[in-house]
Design a protein that fits this description.
Blueprint (H helix, E strand, L loop, with lengths): L10 E4 L2 E4 L3 H6 L5 E2 L3 E5 H5 L1 E3 L4 E6 L5 E5 L4 E3 L9 E2 H11 L10 E5 L3 H19 L7 E3 L7 H10 L5 E4 L12 E6 L6 H8 L13 E6 L24 H10 L3 H19 L4 H11 L3 H10 L2 H10 L3 H6 L9 E5 L5 E6 L7 H14 L5 H8 L6 H13 L4 H12 L7 H10 L6 H13 L6 H17 L17 H8 L4 H12 L4
Helix pairs in contact: 3-4, 7-8, 8-10, 13-16, 13-17, 14-15, 18-19, 18-21
């Protein structure tokens, strides 16, 4: 599905399929996947202070069973921090402020799609409405189909997912669980987190929705918007796979999603949720619901639990299709069940700040200073770093990957460095990772990488008299250097050169000097401008 690799070391899941050897960061370093810029953190007055109801304060609560809104007096003081927004307290004002700020970054008329992760299905409805209002205010009326909820509760969800992937609309999709894994929409350029997650694996699955390349729209990076202060808490997330990510999700929605998804990973994830949820439900299933379940399906709920645990996926899907009452009956509540009340916050909210998340560094300038210190402190401990600074002539593609991985592990990706430079210098320069390293270590001028390539190849072309075939080969090498930064002898036996004879053929064209010519290109490339 667009990414292959030689089997080795370990496997991971990308786009819902097993991919050997590559982790997400390795795939980014090797250019298979797109990286994201430092997240855009949206802070509001309520996310900073939380939401507090004083004891005895009159407040609105919604009955989650009936949807009715009642007035009560708070029996005690209640305080809700941002991670509980829209899960334990409904706060429309916060969502409105976020929607309005998103209009400063996203224009539905421009290329690229946006995926927003909401807390619950009801929260997704609120977000869709507020987004439509905000975009209409900012840009004039927009197509009603441009912003849509895509969850298991909507009709013909599979067709809607297909439209999100292939059609102009929807440009913005609001989801809960359905689109966290397995949905391949390369044109996604924006992810918005309106919910906290409790697993690093789940988080990586969620950002995986935007990692695909999309040359049709010139996608080079994607953006993450973080209004719930998720990013600073990533180090606290576990690597555990969450079984029930959202306990409030209904049986009916889980069944709908199981029948609508396409990949084994998605089906396994939803099946696990159904198993855990049904196991908990069995002890609390009203007698009337149990009797109706057996009448509708011809088996006990306990037998259905065994079916979920053991049945072949194809047979299970068909059984669920043949028994559409499974979800609604399991969701059924008796009149004696206590409804759940969720308070509705009418606290006014306002935007406080919009900043970039550079990890421990508060400002982009601090991030660049930390990077410079890291480079200088590790010149003698990271071989590839020393090579880039002192002997770029000898640099190979393997060295470049080693350098990128070492920097990436320490939080210094090329994407983050470019963004930090642009934010701190008000100067958007498409420099390479080597350019950033040499600027930090030696004070080399930071100039656009394509300009470096053109200047280096121009000097090489004019350095001596070349034959016409040699000139054409040099042009092709220069084009590949512009794409990959380093073209070494090993690279000549790979595409796009191997089809035309590879290293041996080119070595003959250059009279046995091709290795020296490649080294000369490296040297000229990083000569001080």
């Amino acid at each position: 599905m667009g990414l292959t690799a030689t089997p080795a070391l370990h496997t991971t899941e990308i786009f819902g399929e097993p991919v050997y050897r590559y982790s997400y960061r390795e795939a980014v370093v090797d250019g298979f996947l797109i990286d994201h810029e430092p997240p855009i953190r949206i802070e509001t007055a309520l996310t900073r202070a939380g939401i507090t109801f004083e004891r005895g304060e009159e407040l609105e609560v919604i009955n989650t069973k009936t949807g009715e809104v009642d007035l009560i007096n708070a029996p005690d003081e209640f305080h809700f921090a941002v991670e509980k927004f829209n899960r334990q307290v409904i706060t429309e004002s916060f969502n409105r402020v976020v929607a309005e700020e998103l209009t400063n970054h996203i224009d539905p008329a421009l290329p690229g799609k946006t995926l927003i992760f909401a807390v619950t299905d009801a929260h997704a409805d609120i977000v869709v409405r507020l987004l439509k209002e905000a975009f209409a205010e900012a840009y004039g009326e927009i197509d009603d189909a441009a912003v849509r909820k895509i969850t298991g509760s909507v009709d013909r969800v599979k067709d809607l997912i297909r439209s999100f992937r292939n059609d102009t609309n929807p440009k913005i999709a609001v989801t809960v669980e359905l689109l966290t894994t397995g949905i391949d929409v390369p044109s996604i350029t924006n992810l918005v987190f309106l919910r906290r997650v409790n697993s690093r694996i789940l988080y990586e699955q969620m950002i995986g929705r935007a990692t695909r390349k999309c040359d049709e729209i010139g996608k080079e990076v994607f953006r993450i918007f973080d209004p719930v202060d998720l990013y600073p808490h990533l180090q606290d997330l576990t690597d555990m796979r969450p079984i029930v990510v959202n306990p409030a999700i209904s049986f009916d929605q889980l069944v709908r999603e199981y029948l609508s998804v396409d990949t084994d990973l998605e089906r396994d994830t939803i099946r696990d949720q159904l198993i855990v949820k049904l196991r908990r439900r069995l002890s609390r299933l009203p007698d009337e619901a149990r009797e109706r379940f057996e009448a509708e399906t011809g088996e006990t709920p306990e037998r259905t639990l065994e079916r979920l645990q053991q049945a072949d996926p194809v047979i299970l899907r068909q059984w669920l299709r043949d028994n559409p009452a499974v979800g609604p009956v399991l969701d059924w509540q008796s009149e004696g069940d206590n409804p759940r009340y969720v308070p509705i916050s009418n606290h006014e909210d306002e935007l406080v700040s919009v900043t970039r998340g550079y990890g421990a560094s508060e400002r982009p300038e601090d991030y660049l200073d930390t990077f410079s210190t890291f480079v200088r402190d590790n010149l003698n401990t990271i071989a590839a770093l020393k090579l880039v600074v002192q002997r770029p002539r000898d640099l190979t593609r393997a060295d470049l990957k080693e350098l990128r991985m070492a920097l990436d592990r320490s939080g210094f990706s090329e994407t983050n460095l470019k963004r930090a430079w642009a934010d701190s210098k008000n100067e958007d320069i498409a420099a390479s990772i080597i350019g950033f390293v040499r600027q930090a270590a030696l004070g080399d001028p930071l100039i656009p990488y394509e300009d470096r390539v053109r200047a280096a190849m121009r000097r090489i072309m004019s350095s001596k008299t070349w034959t016409e075939p040699q000139k054409r080969w040099l042009t092709r090498i220069g084009e590949q250097v512009a794409k990959e930064i380093v073209v070494d002898s090993e690279a000549l036996d790979k595409e796009p050169f191997v089809r035309d004879g590879g290293f041996n053929r080119m070595n003959k064209v250059f009279n046995g000097e091709i290795a020296n010519i490649l080294a000369l290109i490296n040297e000229e490339l990083w000569a001080v401008a």
